[in-house]
Amino acid sequence: MLGGSANDTAISDADMAYSASPSAIKSSRSAHARASSMMRPPMMRSSDEPARPLVTDREEYAELPSSPVHLTAENPVSTFSIDVDTGAYSNIRRFLNHNRLPPRDAVRIEELVNYFDYDYPLSHNGTPFSVSTEVFDSPFKKDAKILKIALRADDRKAQSMPPANLVFLIDVSGSMHEDNKLPLVKQTLHILTEQLRPQDRVAIVTYASGEKLALPSTPGDKKAEILRVVDSLQARGATAGEQAIQMAYREAEKSYIKNGINRIILATDGDFNVGIRDRNALTAMVAEKRKSGVSLSALGFGTGNYNEAMMEKIADAGNGNFFYIDSRREAKKVVGRELSATLMTVAQDVKIQVEFNPATVREYRLIGYE
Hints:
The protein is α/β, with parallel strands linked by helices. It has 2 domains: about 15-155 and about 350-365, no CATH class; about 160-345, 3-Layer(aba) Sandwich (Rossmann fold), CATH 3.40.50. The chain is about 25% helix and about 25% strand. Strands 8-7-6-9-10-11 form a 6-stranded mixed sheet, sandwiched between helices. It has a 5-stranded antiparallel sheet with strand order 2-13-1-5-4.
């Protein structure tokens, strides 16, 4: 597998993989055992609530192409962009918890692998990230190997991170009334707010039929004031996301912190039905706005009208990350650790280039990051 982080996001325990047909690669028995163990499905139940009927008729996923096999003699170099999104894993778990297979396009291998923590070594001598590799027998194809390449960024403790200027952009439209949507968004924002430091700032923009500045930029030590606004949110109206995104960028730019963390955190089911609804138009708008130095990450919630295709593209265009939250436990994992770990940029517009020796590897195929 091949992995890392793309755009302006931080690299944090990201993985990538190649399936290769070698003529001279050896692997250890222990590596094969680890591979077999990694392929076994873990216990899926994560939700804090009992399973409920799953409605997915209106859910949208971007088409996922298949990665072709390349002959090394003709094309020895593989180049691709990477990121550290993990949303696919918790979304797939949601389907499996309801005894259903997920849609094919919901299964993104790199996000399944990146979901877990690995004991990769830290970088040394001031380099921004470390690189680890491992080769083991493929459990899927005889006489083939899997090459795993992993990147790990330097760990940054929360207290050592620069000040953060955050804007919570919250969908409060009627589609968000279900327990696994706005109520879970509120729980997630409670967890995030408790981590704020006095030097951090937070603004809250909400949107339904129209956009609203629910909380001007407020210091992070005024937690009661922030949470009072969060707790007052109610779901009603249509979903006009375009103008709200523009307002969120304006608020972030007003409180911009030079050499700090400036990010919008969008919490929604992705069901924009008023204003710009075209995925490419929204992506273009966000891509233009990122030139201001403000990034955008997306937190996905809910079922039924969940639009992952929209949110993933917006997060990629906004130089941010995408996560899917299906329970309070997942909220703690994402907001308590993963989101804070990716707020700090380590590298921008990251691309991986791997060159294979035709004398050693006959052909290869990229797994993930298609």
